[in-house]
Amino acid sequence: MNIEQMVDQITPELYQQLQTAVEIGRWPDGSRVSDEQREMLIQALMIWQSRHDADRDEPYTISADGEMRFACDSERERLQAAFGDTFKITLN
User: Fold this and answer.
1) For the stretch 57-86, what's the b/e string if a residue is b when 16 or more beta carbons lie within 10 angstroms of its beta carbon?
2) Which of 16, 35, 43, 56 is the most buried (most CB within 10 A)?
3) If pLDDT is split at 50, 70 and 90, which confidence band does 76 have?
4) Interhelix angle for 35-52 vs 12-24, to 10°?
5) Residue 47 belongs to what H/E stretch?
6) Spatial contact of 31 and 5, defined as CB atoms under 8 Å apart
7) Per-residue pLDDT reduced to its tens digit, 12-56
8) 32 - beta bridge partners?
9) How far apart are CA 7 and CA 11, in angstroms?
10) Which pLDDT score is estimated for 13?
11) Which domain of life is it from (predicted)?
């Protein structure tokens, strides 16, 4: 299963559970979320958010066009100067 197929199966309820797993580093059964799992979950959650919750105008969220929203323009400029255009997500 690729990440796109995984995102297609995420319900709003599952989104909340996965978000909690990323935040606390544990699955609902108490087992540890591995670094690899966490990385994949973060990607999936960001894609899901851009598809289903793109209207939120909060900082550090992803818009439908794959752009990350920042708290202020100076924050965006500082990060772009440091990391280039790596904050763009390509959505298929």
Assistant:
1) eeeebbeeeeebebeeeeebeeeeeeeeee
2) 43
3) low
4) 140
5) helix 35-52
6) no
7) 999 999 999 999 999 999 999 999 999 888 888 888 887 877 566
8) 26
9) 9
10) 93
11) Bacteria
